Amino acid sequence: MNPNIEDYEKFQESVAEICDIYLSIDNLTEEGMRVYSTDEKMGIQAREHANPKQNMRPGQIERVDPEYVRHGTSGIIASRNVATGEIVAPLVQPTRKEDDFLRHISGIVSIFPNDRHIFITDNLNTHVSESLVKFVAKIEGMDESALGIKGKCGILKDMSSRSAFLVDRGHRIAFAYTPKHCSWLNQIECWFGIITRRLLNKRASFIALPKTLRNN
Questions:
Q1: Could you count the other beta carbons within 10 Å of the beta carbon of residue 21?
Q2: 69 near 47, Cβ under 8 Å?
Q3: Is 49 in contact with 68 (CB distance < 8 Å)?
Q4: Interval 147-168: pLDDT, tens
Q5: Nearest Cα to 183, choosing from 23, 6, 2?
Q6: Element (H, E) at 164
Q7: Distances in Å between the alpha carbon of 215 and those of 118, 207, 210?
């Protein structure tokens, strides 16, 4: 899907910002900055092969039965450390609500509570949420009353005002947003593509958990 570019100069600035972060990763790491590529992949089908696969042997490739039993869907919220390639604190579950994304971000920050962080992500509304602003403000030691009221005034007023707050590099936690329909700038998308092509679409087989385990 190609982006509908309304402001080409602003589009170029956004693309250049993301690319500059990638190109400057060594310097940012030396400065104590942790940079992540973050996104969600939802609607992952939990499919179980109807029959066991036939393993490779001399002269024969691995064979997988195309018939399957579907056990519902799940999803993953993941962040890739741009400097190391490590997938950090992935959250595997069927939803991607505002609280889910905040839980993932706060989980990463809690691993390195004294470091600075940049998260590269897209403009999904949950990535520019009220709770995310409040989380960053709390870490910055700001009074929550100074943030305004969602839908009315202040930093919390709308997505634009919240985004302006969240991209501020003066904060210990900052976000860099890719332009609309430009998720290809986000490195985590490459990882999602690899696991989809090499694992989920062909080789993965997920069994259904017993009811007793599902409840836990």
A1: 17
A2: yes
A3: yes
A4: 999 999 999 999 999 999 999 9
A5: 2
A6: helix 159-166
A7: 36, 16, 9
Whether the per-residue pLDDT at 99 is higher than 90: the answer is yes
Task: Tell me the pairing of strands 33-49 and 116-121.
Answer: parallel
Domain 8-207: state its class: alpha beta
What 3-state class would DSSP assign to 31? coil
Q: Which residue has the tokens 């971000």?
A: 105
Q: Which of 169, 91, 161, 113 is nearest to 133 (CA)?
A: 161
Count Cα neighbours of 56 within 13 Å in the Cβ-side half-sphere.
3
Q: Where are the domains of the chain?
A: 8-207
pLDDT of residue 1: 59
| Residues, the chain | 216
12-60: pLDDT as tens digits = 999 999 999 999 999 999 999 999 999 999 888 777 878 888 888 999 8
Note the pLDDT of residue 213: 44
What token pair was written down for 123? 């403009």
Give CA–CA dist 175/147, Å, rounded: 18
Quote the mean pLDDT of the chain. 89
Residue type (1 letter), 115: D
